[in-house]
Amino acid sequence: MVDAPNWERFAQGVAAGIARGCVDDAVILAWSERGFVQYMQEAGSITVQVSDPDVAPLSEQQRHTLASDGWDPPGSDFGPLWTREVRWRPDPVLFDEFAQMITVVLRDVIALPSPAQLRVEAFNVIGGERFELPFTGVEYDKAVLDAQLRLADLRLHESAAAFLIGRQGLDAQTVAVVARAAGRRPTRTDAGEYFVDRVLYVDGDDPHLLVWSHVGPSGRTGSRLVPPHPPVDGPFIRAEQGSAVYVRDLLQRNKSFAAALRANPALHERVRALLGTGRADVVRAACVGVDSTGAVTVTAMKLAPHEIDVPTLRLAA
Questions:
Q1: Residue 130: burial class (beta carbons within 10 Å; 0-12, 13-18, 19+)
Q2: Can you tell me the distance from the alpha carbon of 193 to that of 186, in angstroms, rounded to the nearest whole number?
Q3: Left (φ > 0), alpha (ψ -120 to 50) or beta: where does 212 sit?
Q4: For residue 297, which phi and psi values (nearest 5 degrees)?
Q5: Cβ(156)–Cβ(24) under 8 Å?
Q6: Are the CB atoms for 200 and 170 separated by under 8 Å?
Q7: Is residue 88 a contact partner of residue 44, using CB atoms and an 8 Å limit?
Q8: Largest separation between any pair of C-alpha atoms in the chain
Q9: Is the bond preceding 227 in cis, omega lying within 30 degrees of 0?
Q10: Mean pLDDT across the stretch 247-276?
């Protein structure tokens, strides 16, 4: 059962849980055997669903309210579930808005009088690890501190990027800063940082796209599941930050990068023309590390031409 005395504390716990959550975390909040809200954390989004089964259907008024609030009705893909996809970003405002959305459904649409009526299952889909949402005072305080440390790392990355651009004299424009949810759960000595990639358009005599993969004080890089390139039959592969297949996938499929290009048509055209040259060296990458003393290191990554494959690279749409 949810150990939260009221809906306000419940929303705070959900927000803190998202802030310190990990990729592939799943949470089920059930008020009956077939009645539940569930959400799953992906690298750059959170998928949320409300059950509407034939054996315990929602009322027409409840369905109307969900539809008015932007929920997609059940379809053939997910079964009897209303669905919303929320674009994830490392932002306390987003964490609070997400928690309020869940709270509104349970309190106002389903009309549960108290969060104590909910049964919670929280686990990682890939690793199988089970965890608790931070509803109690002590756990909530720990979760808030973990989130603050993660957000402090992001500010450190921003400072490192500004320092490097100035020191190297780059005529560079940030196209997008792509943040990914954490890949591991916090421990007593490690908050489990968010992973960040920065896409720069470098102008001048040697124009190119530069992807900086930021590495925090822990020294750990992130990874993502991507289609192998050159293409082969089989499952997706896990690519490390800064590798050729990782960079290629980011430029081709990342929604934040695509949105940034759509918002700046002139820059979009310049990037498209740059890739149209087909030269492998128009896409470059480096890992930018910042240690606990604030020292910045830059490690250039070697992108194999046949893996980055600029001639066939198509920008995210």
A1: exposed
A2: 8
A3: beta
A4: -125, 145
A5: no
A6: yes
A7: yes
A8: 67
A9: no
A10: 94
Determine the Cα–Cα distance for residues 140 and 137; give it in Å rounded to an integer: 5
- The C-alpha atoms of residue 72 and residue 66 are separated, in whole angstroms, by 8
Which SS3 state, helix, strand or coil, does residue 268 take?
A: helix
Strand partners, 38: 28, 49
pLDDT of residue 141: 95
Grade residue 272 by pLDDT with cuts at 50, 70 and 90.
very high
Tokens of 81: 């579930």
DSSP secondary-structure letter at 292?
Answer: T
Given a cut of 80, whether residue 77 has pLDDT beyond it is no
> Per-residue DSSP letters for 64-105?
HHHHHTTPBPPBTTTBSEEEEEEE--S-HHHHHHHHHHHHHI
What single DSSP character describes residue 108?
I
What tokens were used for 89?
A: 């970003």
Q: At 301, which helix (H) or strand (E)?
A: strand 296-301
Share the mean pLDDT of the chain: 93
pLDDT single digits (tens) 273-315: 999 999 999 999 999 998 878 889 999 999 999 999 999 999 9
Per-residue pLDDT for 317 more than 80?
A: no
Cα separation, 271 vs 207, whole angstroms = 9
**Phi, psi at 256, each rounded to 5°:** -65, -40
Burial 23-58 (b: 16+ CB within 10 A, else e): bbbbbbbbbeeebbbbbbbebbebbbbbbbeeeeeb
Asked if 226 contacts 245 with a C-beta cutoff of 8 angstroms, the reply is yes
pTM for the predicted model, two decimal places:
0.88
Residue appearing with tokens 């310190």: 20
**Length reported for the chain:** 317
Per the structure block, which two tokens stand in for 30?
Answer: 């059930």
- Which residues in 88-190 belong to E strands, given as ranges? 119-124, 172-180
